[in-house]
Design brief:
Radius of gyration: 32 Å
CATH architecture of the domain at 88-248: Alpha-Beta Complex
Helix content: 40-55%
Distance between the termini: 83 Å
CATH superfamily of the domain at 88-248: Glutamyl-tRNA Synthetase, Domain 3
Number of helices: 20
Shape: elongated
Structural class: alpha/beta
Strand content: 5-15%
Bound molecules: glutamic acid
Length: 505
């Protein structure tokens, strides 16, 4: 039987999760679910310098909001716990020693000052096969000296010994075989005695191995690390169980020139984070998709198509459909432009797809804030009439306030254009016509009012424009008789009478 698919999302808690990170999590999730596999959350926090409090909680809350359920993780536990690298300190030391014993890694004592001096003296200095012989490390010192330095409490690092001029092949599901010459790599630091912690590279490989990860799906920015990772698997003798790599395309600026950044969001007015984030140091607030009024399913659908497509034009896909259709082979190599307008379009589509009752529930608190007190059934009816006009729930107020409160003023330009000399007289007559209508349904009103207009030889457009101005206060809104049917006969008549009294042209 084939091995069970296990993927991990392995963020470093260095701040709010970027929208590109959300896409990485999504693709991992889709891939895992498609293959009946496990989706693991591992927190890579070995760099204490960059640790930001609250970031881990933020990541979990974001992905929970979006419906990306983990099978194992820091918040859930699981058979491979712990899932936070700072809680796995004890595990790594053994593997560092293993590499040193095998001669695949060595101990280096060069101080930051010494390295700095070397860099200043040698242009393009790289700590590697060509230079390590000139440095202070266990390859250039004898055993005794190394032991003495360690015993005396000198700080050191363990470096990976990469031999020059080897061909390293990264097998990437999306990019095919990517070949590197090992000489471009430096002898990466794998461990630092100062904090008794491994660096990202070592912890990442050891954990993927121990957690039996089968596929490493991550952003393109990690591709340059992949040859080093391949060499680490080899050094450990783990080639057999090395995961399959898939490096996802970059998310590009809307204009397509370069990587999407927070500044693009600020510049063009869209969020680049799933949830609002308050920087714990500066107190600065960054907007989030959730707080901006996005429905999670719209964000998911939007992100799913940034770097992947099902091979046809289908655009609207539920999570279940995405799981069915997703494949790494259909991911693109080239960057995906972050088309924010498309994101809005998806939200518009999903507002149409959600039942009116659900949209009404999201709208209700906004109405309460406006001081409106109506029953939820009424809100649901209004939502059904206007939702096709909005991309966000918060835009509903602008499109529907007149269902809840009578106009307190009348748009001057509209008055000028639409309130004709005979409008007051016609509207007064209309009041009488409406008074006589028993069945105040939209359809019945329309029939009776139009018959009256025709019998009088009035101009249909002029009457309806004045009618709308009186009811709405301006020239917008859904079908006129739908509005009056919802606000009811008494309210309609009251608004007409008020307009006749108040509109002066
Ligand atoms: N900790 C890395 C990150 O922050 C993980 C990269 C990987 O998935 O290997 O993205």
């Amino acid at each position: 039987m084939a091995q069970k698919v296990r993927v991990r999302f392995a963020p470093s808690p260095t701040g709010p999760l970027h929208i590109g990170g959300v896409r990485t999590a999504l693709y991992n999730y889709l891939f895992a679910k498609k293959h009946g596999g496990d989706f693991v959350l591992r927190i890579e926090d070995t760099d204490s310098q960059r640790f930001v409090p609250g970031a881990e909680e933020y990541i979990i809350e974001s992905l929970t909001w979006l419906g990306l359920q983990f099978d194992e993780g820091t918040h859930l536990g699981g058979a491979y716990a712990p899932y936070r690298q700072s809680d796995r300190k004890e595990i790594y030391r053994k593997y560092v020693d293993m590499l040193v014993e095998k001669g695949a890694a060595y101990i280096a004592f060069d101080t930051p000052q010494e390295l700095e001096a070397k860099r200043a003296a040698v242009p393009n200095f790289q700590y590697d096969a060509s230079t390590r012989g000139e440095m202070r490390n266990s390859l250039t010192m004898d055993k005794e000296e190394v032991k003495n330095l360690i015993d005396a409490g000198n700080q050191y690092v363990v470096r990976f010994r990469i031999e020059a001029e080897q061909e390293v092949t990264v097998n990437d599901v999306i990019r095919g075989e990517v070949k590197y010459n090992s000489s471009v790599l430096d002898d990466k630091v794998l461990y630092k005695s100062a904090d008794n912690l491994p660096t990202y590279h070592l912890a990442n490989i050891v954990d993927d191995h121990l957690m039996e990860i089968t596929h490493v799906i991550r952003g393109e920015e990690w591709l340059p690390s992949a040859p080093l990772h391949v060499l680490l698997y080899k050094a450990f003798g783990w080639e057999e169980t090395m995961p399959q790599f898939a490096h996802l395309p970059l998310l590009l600026k809307p204009e397509g020139n370069g990587k999407l950044s927070k500044r693009d969001g600020d510049r063009l007015g869209f969020p680049v984070f799933p949830l609002e984030w308050k920087d714990p140091k500066t107190g600065e607030i960054s907007s989030g998709y959730r707080e901006s009024g996005y429905l999670p399913e719209a964000v998911i659908n939007f992100l799913a198509l940034l770097g992947w497509n099902p091979g046809n034009d289908q655009e609207i896909m539920s999570m279940d459909e995405l799981i069915q259709l997703f494949s790494l082979e259909k991911c693109s190599k080239s960057g995906a432009k972050f088309d924010y307008e498309k994101g809005k379009w998806f939200n518009h589509q999903y507002i149409q797809l959600r039942p009116d009752s659900e949209i009404a529930n999201i709208y209700y608190p906004i109405l309460e804030e406006k001081g409106v007190d109506v029953n939820i059934g009424y809100v649901e009816t209004v939502v059904g009439l206007v939702k096709e006009r909005v991309s966000f729930v918060k835009e509903l107020w602008d499109q529907s306030s007149f269902f809840f409160i009578a106009p307190t003023s009348y748009d001057e330009k509209v008055v000028k254009k639409r309130w004709k000399e005979d409008s007051p007289a016609q509207m007064t007559e209309l009041v009488e016509v409406l008074k006589g209508i028993e069945d105040f349904s939209s359809h019945n009103q329309e029939e009776i009012v139009k018959a009256w207009i025709e019998s009088k030889g009035y101009h249909l457009g002029n009457v309806m424009n004045a009618f709308r101005l009186a009811i709405v206060g301006e020239s917008k809104g859904p079908h006129m008789f739908d509005i009056t049917a919802v606000i009811g006969k008494d309210e309609t008549i009251a608004r007409l009478e008020k307009a006749v009294k108040e509109i002066k042209n």
